[in-house]
C-alpha cells in the first residue's frame, strides 16, 4: 500500500471523543418466548438495565438472516434483517395478528413464520392508512436491495438448493425467467417483503427507545459476503466467481491464535477492479444502510482492506493461501467522500502489519485491545493496558473468546500468577479484576461481554472459531443477574469516568 496522503486524514470520531462503557450482547442471547431472543419486551428491558448501570453503548453482532449454523457472520443478505429476531408483539398490538397460533412452551421458528403470514393477511385487511403508507414508503425506499432479496428467498423456499444449483436461466438471472418467477411466487414474495417491514419497524423502534435514553447501538459489519446470498447472486460481477457461479478463491485467515490450520471461511472474494470501476457503490450503499440502523459500526477483519488471505477454493483448510493486496486507501477515501459522518471502529486483530496500522490511523479508526491477549510475550505486548491509546476500544474478550472466567481457569499456573501479579493480586474474584482493568484503561470505549458481567464460566461461551458445532446459541436469563450487579457496574463506571 502506498503511504496514505496527509490530506486524506479525517477528524477524530465524534462518538468516541468521550469515555464510555459498553456491553456486548447479541439480540439472540436475550431471554424471550422464542428459540432465540428477539426485538420484543426483553430487548427494551435490557436497555433499561444498561441505563440503570450507567452503560451508554450496546454492542450487537451482525443482524442479517442466518444460515444453517446460525452464524451472524454468514448471512443471506447484507441488507435484510433476520426474521428470527422479529417479535410478534407489534403485529398483536396493531391488531394485524389476532393471536399467536398454539405451540409448545417455546415459540418455534415454524410457528413464528406461520404467525407472520397470518399477520400479513391481517395487515391487508385491517391496517390503517398511516401504517399502509408507512409500508409503501419502506418498500419504495428499500427497493434497491429488497426486490432481489425477496425473490432470492422465495426461490430458496420454493426451489431449494443454493443459487448456483438452480436452473441456468435463474442462476444467470435471465430477464424472462426472473419475471416469470416473480409472477409465480407473488404470494410468497409478499410475505417475505412484509416480514422485512416488520423487522425494520421493530428495529427502528428499539433504536429510538435506546437513543432517547442515551444508549448508542454499536453494530458489526462482516467484511465478506456469504456465497449463497442475494447480493452475490444479484451482483456476480463484483465477486471472483467462475462462470458456473462457484468461487475461484475463498476468504479466510492463516494459522493463528485460534487455529493451527487457520480459518477457511469460504466466502467469495471481491473483484476489486470492478468495484473500483463502479466507484465502490456496493460498499457505499452497504455502509449507508447500516449507518441508519446503528450509531456506529465495527468493521470485522479490517486488515482485509489492506491485504486479504486468498485460499484456492479446492483447499480444505486455510494453510495454503497467500496475501493479496487490497485497495483500502481508495475505498475509504471514497466512503468518507460520500459518507463524511460515517463512524467506524476497526477490528484490527490477527496479523497486523505496519501498512494495516497506517491505513487505520489515516482515517482515525479506533482499533481494538483485548485484555485476554495481553499476558503473554513480555512487556511489549500491545494489549497490555499501559500500551492502550484513547482512540481504542478495550475488551475483556470478544464473542470469539472464552468468557473471562473460563479463560482464567484455563491458564497454566505461570501465566495465571503473572495475571494475578499484574492486576495487584486483587481480593475480588474473576472476572471483576479484568472488568475493572478494562474500565480503567485509557481507551475511550470499554466493552464488556455480558457473560463477564454475569460472572459466567466457559460453558457460556458464544463462539469458538474454527468449529461449527455448539456456537451462537447462548442465552441468559434475568435471574442470572445477581443482586447488586447494577449498582456495582454503576459505581465502577462512575469511578473510571465513563
Description:
This protein has 498 residues and is of the alpha/beta class. It folds into three domains: 184 residues, Glycosidases (TIM Barrel, Alpha-Beta Barrel), CATH 3.20.20; 139 residues, no CATH class; 134 residues, no CATH class. Helices cover 39% and strands 11% of the residues. The chain has 18 helices and twelve strands. An eight-stranded parallel beta sheet has the order 9-6-3-2-1-12-11-10. β1, α1 and β2 form a beta-alpha-beta unit. α1 packs across α18. The N terminus is likely disordered.
Task: Considering the chains and any ligands shown, give keywords for the structure.
498 residues, alpha/beta, TIM Barrel, 3 domains, 8-stranded parallel beta sheet, 4-stranded antiparallel beta sheet, 18 helices, 12 strands, transferase, EC 2.4.1.25, 4-alpha-glucanotransferase, carbohydrate metabolism, Glyco_hydro_77
Q: What is the structure about, briefly put?
A:
This protein is α/β, with parallel strands linked by helices and 498 residues long. It has 18 helices and twelve strands. The strands form two sheets. The protein has an eight-stranded parallel sheet with strand order 9-6-3-2-1-12-11-10.
CATH class division of the largest domain = Alpha Beta
Largest sheet, if any?
8 strands, parallel
Kindly report how far apart the N and C termini lie: 37 Å
Corresponding CATH architecture of the largest domain: Alpha-Beta Barrel
Report mean pLDDT, rounded to a whole number. Answer: 94
Ranges where pLDDT stays below 50 over 5 or more residues in a row are: 1-11
Which bin fits the share of residues in helices?
25-40%
Number of domains: 3
CATH fold annotation of the largest domain: TIM Barrel
Question: What is the molecular shape?
Answer: globular
Label the structural class.
Answer: alpha/beta
Question: So how many helices?
Answer: 18
What integer value in Å does the Rg equal?
Answer: 23 Å
In CATH, the homologous superfamily of the largest domain goes by the name Glycosidases
Strand arrangement, largest sheet? 9-6-3-2-1-12-11-10
| Order of H and E elements | EHEHHHHHHHEHEEHHEEEHEHEEHHHEHH
How many beta strands in the DSSP annotation? 12
Please state roughly what percent of the residues sit in beta strands, choosing from under 5%, 5-15%, 15-25%, 25-35%, 35-45% or over 45%. Answer: 5-15%
Protein name: 4-alpha-glucanotransferase
Catalytic activity: Transfers a segment of a (1->4)-alpha-D-glucan to a new position in an acceptor, which may be glucose or a (1->4)-alpha-D-glucan
Organism: Candidatus Thiodiazotropha endolucinida
Keywords: Carbohydrate metabolism, Glycosyltransferase, Transferase
Amino acid at each position: 500500500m502506498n503511504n496514505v496522503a496527509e490530506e486524506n486524514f479525517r477528524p477524530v470520531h465524534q462518538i468516541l471523543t468521550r469515555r464510555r462503557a459498553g456491553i456486548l450482547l447479541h439480540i439472540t442471547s436475550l431471554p424471550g418466548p422464542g428459540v432465540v431472543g428477539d426485538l420484543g419486551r426483553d430487548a427494551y428491558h435490557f436497555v433499561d438495565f444498561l441505563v440503570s448501570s450507567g452503560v451508554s453503548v450496546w454492542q450487537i453482532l451482525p443482524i442479517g438472516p442466518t444460515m444453517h449454523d446460525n452464524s451472524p457472520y454468514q448471512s443471506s443478505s447484507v441488507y435484510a434483517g433476520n426474521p428470527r429476531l422479529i417479535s410478534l408483539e407489534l403485529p398483536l398490538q396493531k391488531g394485524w395478528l389476532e393471536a399467536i397460533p398454539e405451540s409448545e412452551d417455546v415459540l418455534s421458528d415454524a410457528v413464528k413464520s406461520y404467525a407472520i403470514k397470518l399477520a400479513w393477511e391481517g395487515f391487508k385487511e385491517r391496517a390503517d392508512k398511516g401504517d399502509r403508507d408507512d409500508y409503501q414508503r419502506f418498500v419504495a425506499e428499500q427497493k434497491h436491495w429488497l426486490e432481489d432479496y425477496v425473490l432470492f428467498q422465495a426461490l430458496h423456499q420454493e426451489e431449494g438448493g443454493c443459487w448456483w444449483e438452480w436452473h441456468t436461466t435463474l442462476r444467470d438471472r435471465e430477464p424472462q425467467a426472473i419475471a416469470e418467477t416473480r409472477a409465480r411466487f407473488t404470494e410468497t414474495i409478499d410475505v417475505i417483503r412484509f416480514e422485512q417491514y416488520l423487522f425494520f419497524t421493530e428495529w427502528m423502534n428499539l433504536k429510538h427507545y435506546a437513543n432517547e435514553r442515551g444508549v448508542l447501538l454499536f453494530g458489526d459489519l462482516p467484511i465478506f459476503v456469504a456465497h449463497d446470498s442475494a447480493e452475490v447472486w444479484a451482483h456476480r460481477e463484483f465477486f471472483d466467481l467462475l462462470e458456473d457461479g462457484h468461487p475461484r478463491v475463498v476468504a479466510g485467515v492463516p494459522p493463528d491464535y485460534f487455529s493451527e490450520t487457520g480459518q477457511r471461511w469460504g466466502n467469495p472474494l471481491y473483484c476489486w477492479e470492478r468495484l473500483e470501476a463502479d466507484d465502490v457503490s456496493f460498499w457505499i450503499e452497504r455502509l449507508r444502510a447500516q449507518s441508519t440502523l446503528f450509531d456506529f459500526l465495527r468493521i470485522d477483519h479490517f486488515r482485509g482492506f489492506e491485504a486479504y488471505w486468498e485460499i484456492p477454493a479446492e483447499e480444505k483448510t486455510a494453510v495454503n493461501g497467500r496475501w493479496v493486496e487490497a485497495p483500502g486507501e481508495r475505498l475509504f477515501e471514497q466512503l468518507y467522500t460520500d459518507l463524511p459522518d460515517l463512524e467506524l471502529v476497526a477490528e484490527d486483530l490477527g496479523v497486523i502489519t505496519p501498512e494495516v496500522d497506517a491505513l487505520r490511523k489515516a482515517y482515525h479508526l479506533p482499533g481494538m485491545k483485548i485484555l485476554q491477549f495481553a499476558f503473554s510475550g513480555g512487556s511489549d505486548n500491545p494489549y497490555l493496558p499501559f500500551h492502550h491509546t484513547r482512540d481504542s476500544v478495550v475488551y475483556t474478550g470478544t464473542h470469539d473468546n472464552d468468557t473471562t472466567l473460563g479463560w482464567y481457569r484455563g491458564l497454566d499456573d505461570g501465566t495465571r500468577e503473572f495475571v494475578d501479579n499484574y492486576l495487584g493480586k486483587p481480593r475480588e474474584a474473576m472476572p471483576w479484576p479484568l472488568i475493572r482493568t478494562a474500565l480503567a484503561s485509557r481507551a475511550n470505549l470499554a466493552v464488556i461481554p455480558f457473560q463477564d458481567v454475569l460472572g459466567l464460566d466457559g460453558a457460556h461461551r458464544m463462539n469458538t472459531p474454527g468449529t461449527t458445532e455448539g456456537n451462537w446459541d447462548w442465552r441468559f436469563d434475568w435471574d442470572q443477574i445477581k443482586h447488586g450487579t447494577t449498582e456495582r457496574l454503576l459505581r465502577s463506571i462512575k469511578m473510571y469516568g465513563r
